[in-house]
From TrEMBL, chains A, B:
GO terms for molecular function: secondary active sulfate transmembrane transporter activity. Residues 476-599 form the STAS domain. It is found in: Membrane. The chain crosses the membrane at residues 110-128, 135-153, 165-185, 197-215, 248-266, 287-307, 327-346, 358-380, 386-406, 418-448. This is Sulfate transporter 3.1-like isoform X2.
Length: 622, 622
């Protein structure tokens, strides 16, 4: 390893000026400007205003409209070839939307016809404003159940059905307001915390749950649990073995027969489109607060489901959805919906999966569904008096099975065990508890990983690659050799309060271990500790104190600390925190190679305090 | 900047072998071994077993005992010179412990004498096992209030005082078990999430709150709110203006006078040491569950206060406390205490602050306090029938005022605005709500910062420093020049699900902007995008998908993606995720300089697919 002594630092090779030997402190920026920059990077990473630059006023208006109404962008490019696919998928989801809407409205203790109303207006709004091509709009079971639980606790749906109905509209309105505000406040970044692994687990779990729910239709049961977890469903099924319709088991063979045998009674349905309900919104006490509370809670849950579902299918088809736009679109469709006799809608998993499987191409399938529902409302409602549940169930199950992505789960296991854990967490949470608990578990495990990464960063020992000025991790490059008298460490994460005491201990332990090793091997004694800061993206005040403490400890042991390549943000903070002053700017180098060269010069000339000129001279004389 | 073309990569200068041109994939490690390593780094960063290596059996036993009983380490080195300081501070805190203990016991609806018992046994245990030199052990207001609220809801302290008392002992026992388990499970890393900024804010807030509480004594009020927030305290004070003892206002002038005027009636106190209460622990239903619940909740809160306080004073005196040891020590003292008529104790802020101010040097001050309390219990309890509260209040207030660290807050504002926000959050939370809410707010803001750092990492454009092979951020080094036809980006954080869609958008936007710039300036067209991965500590499956998508997008636009210096962990994941296969190992370079040299060679020889031999030849011929 001796040949790595006195390595000539590359940066100085061709007579570079003094600036090259110094890690620069970036030019100072006014606080307001840097705050503005970081807010922009945080909330407007897509820079939505960029395309508006240097455009005529008319074009600006058009672009602005296109931003809020993506239909203006893709609509003009819509070709008839796509219509065929959208028509098929739209009609398919309409055939699902009608019975599903009716049963979810019953779950929410609302008149069944509301389920149909809710599949008419909101999909039209979403088709104009949404950025997903696969999301099918409709009501969802969880939100329906929550509405009946929360509002029902205050107003009885049987004794005071009108007030209950009006409160449901009001809650929907506030859910919409809340959802759209999140989007307008650019909080779409919340969506980034739903990872690929979370979604794989979530989809498989949701598919399992939806399949289990279909056992009701398949077995022809009339009583069934409203809970969605595995245990409740299995208990519900096996507690009524005598009620099983074994005929349903041979479903594939005699499909039509069952259209007559298994039926679902839903009561009278009136003809006619959605009545206006804007005047029904309850904006006065005493029930306003429960409506707002219900709105916010169901709104968040519906939003999480809608965006997770939208993201899942976008991932399948390799396009992007914009979280902020989605929030505004879903919020607006609920606000408008609440004025036209609709209750809370979002993008339900089952309906979107059927839409995707039926080959939808654009949001036009939502329009087709809305038109089909409209025609039903105008002419066909009496026909839906009897709904063949078994057909519905078989459509849903076949769509679901394709969504349990074993291969993706195996891939996660192979590449990243932690991601696999997240995926299994989401799956088990959805199957054994509920959709929200599954999401919460997966997000919590994912966040824990981020926190652990920051709380326990790796510190790597660097060695010199033979015949070069490159210093790399000795574990990754086993031929990298250590430099006598100098310990080179790389810190692999930002230095924050959460890791500063760990890093202090870990760095001191590296030094202890190196000294132990030297004692045994009889190498030259340790005199310099070079810290490669290339990977330290940021530092806070705890981190600066940590450096001060390390410096004190190493000073006491006669060791000198040297920094290599701190980034702009870190230099700024170290300068403001007076650590550069304390350490001496001459002990901060641009590259590890230069730091090592300077240390080597000191080691061999035994001078404790380097002067740049002397160093350069020494280097030039090698 | 033309002179940076064809820069000779330094690593190859001296005839380095092929290995130098390839970023190495680290040798594969069995899953169990890598899991073991990362668990060790996470939970045993201090490597507590290291000192046991190569030691005799007897020495091992001694070291083991010293680990759990730090007194065995510092005890033999204890000098008489320290005793004077410890004696003074011990007696000072004893004089505080007696009235404080009595009033907190009353808060908990327990017999007043329990406050004295609790200042006798637990401090002795802590002195042997604790690692803080400044923590003074005793009961705390918040936990006392919680005990009375939680247990009192199930058992009335007036109608069934014996059962209530026994349940309090049982809850204390379970609090101790829970606290010690957290320590034994090595979850001390929770403590790392209390940052310097949090503690500065928390201490200032707590000092403010404690000062406000002393207004009771200063103004000689007999009725006072049990709440600790600013609003409640001020309302309580100003609602009884007629009760104010204006005499107290001139406290400083005629101290002794007030010893006679202002008094506090506390009822009978029996002589004698703690009776054994181990047989009083309630280990059977029906009240076991409430005792366990109370124990866990009060235990966590007491632990948070004790460790935050211990850490604060350790920071003042520049020593470390070990979170895991502290948890075991505090847990043990509560388990033992519950067997000797003590209820929940921890390190109260006010008492520790007085201890610190009185100049304590070691945990011996706790022993002195315990002895003083013991003597009081044996001989002096009747004297404490009248406690001069005004003296107590003035001692506490003077200690508190020194703990509001304006300078630290100003320093935070100057160096790091975000840390300042955390500090103010903690302060406002403590003053306007409660100690726990303040802690929660500060920790939440701190975590949010970590998450934002990961969710919105910076991407930096690198340029070539003149006459060198060093590439650095052009913002930090304005003289760094861009290389025609090549865009060099550095990613500044691990690539996780939380930032992968952001990074994809951001990188594509950099490419767009660079192409726009080139269109205007007429420079040579962009052909290569070099991503410097030095600062990317880790990657998950979402990150790998992100790279695949970027590659697809850039391929479509005729751009080639090149990676420079991915670390060991990243190389391993990219390899397992088949991205290296997809990209081609020849497009991953050890340094940015080598990547740029290869791209330049391609640019000028117009060959789309590099062969290492050709490259080396080309470089050598420059």
């Amino acid at each position: 390893m001796g040949n790595s002594d006195y390595v000539y630092p590359s940066a100085a090779t061709e007579g570079g000026g003094e600036c090259l030997h110094r890690a620069a402190i970036p030019p100072p920026q006014p606080f307001v400007k840097s705050l503005k920059n970081s807010l922009k990077e945080t909330f407007f990473p897509d820079d939505p205003l960029r395309q508006f630059k240097n455009q005529s006023a008319a074009r600006k208006v058009l672009l602005g409209l296109q931003y809020f109404f993506p239909v203006l962008e893709w609509g003009p490019r819509y070709r008839l070839g796509l219509l065929k696919s959208d028509l098929i998928s739209g009609i398919t989801i309409a055939s699902l939307a009608i019975p599903q809407g009716i049963s979810y409205a019953k779950l929410a203790n609302l008149p069944p016809i509301l389920g149909l109303y809710s599949s008419f207006i909101p999909p039209l709004i979403y088709a104009m404003m949404g950025s997903s091509k696969d999301l099918a709009v409709g009501t969802v079971a969880v939100a329906s159940l929550l509405i009946s639980a929360m509002l029902g606790a205050e107003v009885s749906p049987t004794q005071n059905p009108t007030l209950y109905l009006h409160l449901a509209f009001t809650a929907t309105f506030f859910a919409g307001v809340f959802q759209a505000s999140l989007g307008l406040l650019r909080l779409g970044l919340i969506v980034d915390f739903l990872s690929h692994a979370t979604i794989v687990g979530f989809m498989a779990g949701a598919a399992t749950v939806v399949c289990l729910q279909q056992l009701k239709g398949i077995l022809g049961l009339t009583h069934f649990t409203h809970a969605t977890d595995l245990v409740s469903v299995l208990r519900s099924i096996f507690s009524q073995v005598d009620q099983w319709r074994w005929e349903s088991g041979v479903l594939g063979c005699c499909f039509l027969f069952f259209l007559l045998v298994t039926r679902y009674f839903i009561g009278e349905l009136k003809k006619g489109l959605n009545p206006v309900s804007i005047t029904d919104l309850v904006m006065v006490s005493p029930h306003l607060s429960i409506a707002i509370k219900t709105g916010i809670i169901t709104g968040v849950i519906a939003l999480a489901e809608g965006i997770a579902v939208g993201r899942s299918f976008a991932m399948f088809k390799h396009y992007n959805i914009d979280g902020n736009k989605e929030m505004v679109a879903i919020g607006t469709m609920n606000m408008v919906g609440s004025c036209f006799s609709c209750y809370l809608t979002t993008g339900p998993f089952s309906r979107s999966a059927v839409n995707f499987n039926a080959g939808c191409k654009t949001a036009v399938s939502n329009v087709v569904m809305a038109i089909a529902v409209m025609l039903t409302l105008l002419f066909l409602t009496p026909l839906f008096h009897y709904t063949p549940l078994v057909v519905l169930s078989s459509i849903i199950i076949s769509a679901m099975l394709g969504l349990i992505d074993y291969d993706a789960a195996i891939h996660l296991w192979k590449v990243d065990k932690f991601d696999f854990l997240v995926c299994i967490g989401a799956y088990a949470g959805v199957v054994f508890a509920s959709v929200e608990i599954g999401l919460v578990i997966a997000v919590a495990i994912s966040l824990l990983r981020l926190l652990l990464f920051v709380a326990r960063p790796r510190t790597l020992v660097l060695g010199n690659l033979p015949n070069s000025t490159v210093y790399r991790n000795v574990e990754q490059y086993p031929n990298a050799g250590n430099v006598p008298g100098i310990l080179i460490l790389e810190i692999d994460a930002p230095i924050y309060f959460a890791n500063s005491s760990y890093l202090r201990e870990r760095i001191i332990r590296w030094v202890d271990e190196e000294e132990d090793r030297i004692k045994v091997s009889g190498d030259s004694t340790l005199q310099y500790v070079v810290l490669d800061m290339s990977a330290v993206g940021n530092i806070d005040t705890s981190g600066i104190s940590m450096f001060e403490e390390i410096k004190k400890i190493l000073d006491r042991r006669g060791l000198k600390i040297v920094l290599a390549n701190p980034g702009a943000e870190v230099m700024k903070k170290l300068d403001k925190g007076k650590f550069i002053e304390n350490l001496g700017h001459e002990w901060i180098y641009l590259t590890v190679a230069e730091a090592v060269a300077a240390c080597n010069y000191m080691l061999h000339s035994c001078k404790p305090n380097p002067e740049t000129d002397e160093k350069t001279e020494a280097w030039n004389s090698v």
